[in-house]
Write a structure and sequence with these properties.
CATH superfamily of the largest domain: Hypothetical protein af1432
Shape: rod-shaped
Bound molecules: fe (ii) ion
Number of helices: 15
Largest sheet: 5 strands, antiparallel
Order of helices and strands: HHHEEHHEEEHHHHHHHHHH
Number of domains: 2
Strand content: 5-15%
CATH architecture of the largest domain: Orthogonal Bundle
Strand order of the largest sheet: 2-1-5-4-3
Length: 440
């Protein structure tokens, strides 16, 4: 249920984000297109108007210094009275400027509500550099919400086609155009959201079905991988013992120490695999050494030490298992460097291997073996503490000492199903609960 809910949540979240993104992009496109259309119509009108006006004042344009400026003003006023307001808006201000951008003539609609702001805006003057080399220039200006003007400047040429001045206009975009743009944005957004939601509704069952299949395959894969752990760990245990229960107890001890030390989930998963497989390399040790009842002679001990290297070789062959390498390769190292296989010491030994060493020796001391009876809690702890800082990392041993009594009471020398059941619960905690099948 948990997995299904989390996939559902991710899917809904992603779809919501996609909807928002698509709506935002479409809205921006609609606004751009709407204003571009108004812009183009206004520019066409302005250029046409400028051309007509140019011929009305062509004699001024041909005269030095634009001739009689009073005449230009009167022609402008006459033209302005003929101008009608159109659906998109209208010109609220027009100016004739000389080549140095000095005002020659001006007409404006004093009834326009924002004429003061427009006058203030054009009085700030034009940036001469933006006009350099250009026949026309324009800019859209937002004074406030619903007050948008298009500011245009076009050059004026005399009959010899020489630039003798500029005509400037400020076109107030009708509020209706802005309302229309807003409505189109709203409408387009609504349509886009509807399409995305409808598509999502159609795709949702398909995606969920595919995810269920992938999840089922993942669960099978995890099940198979955990079985490999169980089979490998059990196979070697069967060679030198009747039962593999030691692997379960020692893995539980190691994980509990790691939890006490607040290790991350990844490191604990490493420990879960490594602790369970720590002696997997014993599979390559000959029976006369592995099963010898008495003490090993130096040559036999050298042979026995090879199980570490064999174990590393084995787990290295599996991508899923090879993070067990830290424990498998380091479980006989000692903190003072007197262990094997690499004679590492201190923090050179991976932390998970230092944790495991404590768990392994504690379980060996407190378990019954064919050649010995289990030791009691106090005696076992005394032996461990004697090796604090030599065999064992003091930090790991101290963390273990805090929980050792309860672990001893719960698991020591226990051969029933409890360690197996409890390790299953730990696996469920560190792998996805819905994907875990219990190790048997
Ligand atoms: Fe070992």
């Amino acid at each position: 249920m948990g997995l299904k809910r989390s996939i559902h949540r991710i899917l809904v979240f992603r779809l919501a984000i996609s909807t928002l993104c698509i709506c935002a992009i479409l809205s921006a496109i609609v606004v751009f297109m709407e204003f571009k259309a108004v812009d183009e119509r206004v520019i066409d009108r302005a250029l046409l108007g400028a051309e007509q006006f140019r011929w009305l004042i062509i004699e001024n344009l041909d005269a030095p210094g634009l001739g009689d400026h009073e005449r230009i003003r009167s022609v402008m006023k006459r033209s302005a009275t003929k101008t009608t307001r159109r659906r998109e808006g209208y010109f609220v201000l027009a100016r004739i400027l000389d080549p140095d951008l000095r005002e020659i003539a001006k007409v404006s609609d004093e009834d326009y509500q924002y004429i003061a702001a427009v006058n203030d805006y054009v009085d700030k003057g034009l940036d001469r550099s933006v006009l350099a080399g250009q026949g026309a220039w324009k800019r859209m200006k937002h004074f406030k919400k619903d007050v948008v003007v298009i500011h245009l400047v076009s050059e004026l040429k005399n009959s010899a086609n020489e630039r003798v001045g500029y005509i400037e206009g400020v076109f107030a975009v009708a509020p209706g155009i802005l309302a229309k743009a807003r409505w189109e944005v709203f409408f387009t957004t609504l349509i886009a959201a509807g399409i995305v939601l409808l598509t999502s509704l159609l795709l949702y069952p398909v995606i969920m079905q595919l995810l269920r299949r992938v999840t089922s395959l993942s669960a099978d894969l995890l099940h198979a991988n955990l079985e490999i752990l169980s089979v490998l760990g059990g196979a070697i245990a069967k060679r030198d013992s009747d039962t593999d229960i030691h692997n379960y107890r020692v893995t539980i001890y190691a994980v509990r120490i790691a939890q006490e030390l607040h290790l991350g989930d990844d490191e604990i998963r490493t420990l879960l695999k490594g602790a369970f497989l720590h002696d997997v390399g014993k599979i390559g040790i000959s029976d006369n050494v592995l099963l010898k009842p008495g003490k090993l002679n130096p040559e036999e001990f050298e042979e026995m030490k090879k199980h570490v290297r064999y174990g590393v070789d084995i787990v290295n062959r599996s991508t899923w298992l090879n993070d067990a390498i830290d424990v498998v390769g380091g479980h006989h190292e000692k903190y003072d460097g007197s262990g094997y296989d690499k004679n590492k010491h201190g923090t050179e030994i991976p932390r998970v291997a230092r944790i495991f060493a404590v768990a392994d020796v504690f379980d060996a001391l407190t378990s019954k073996r064919p050649y010995k009876e289990p030791l009691g809690f106090d005696e076992s702890m005394k032996i461990l503490m004697e090796s604090r800082g030599s065999h064992f990392d003091h930090e790991m041993l101290d963390a273990f000492a805090k929980i050792a009594r309860s672990l001893y009471d719960e698991y020591a020398n226990r051969t029933d199903d409890k360690p197996r059941q409890d390790l299953s619960k730990i696996n469920a905690q560190y792998y996805h609960p819905d994907l875990v099948s219990y190790m048997r």
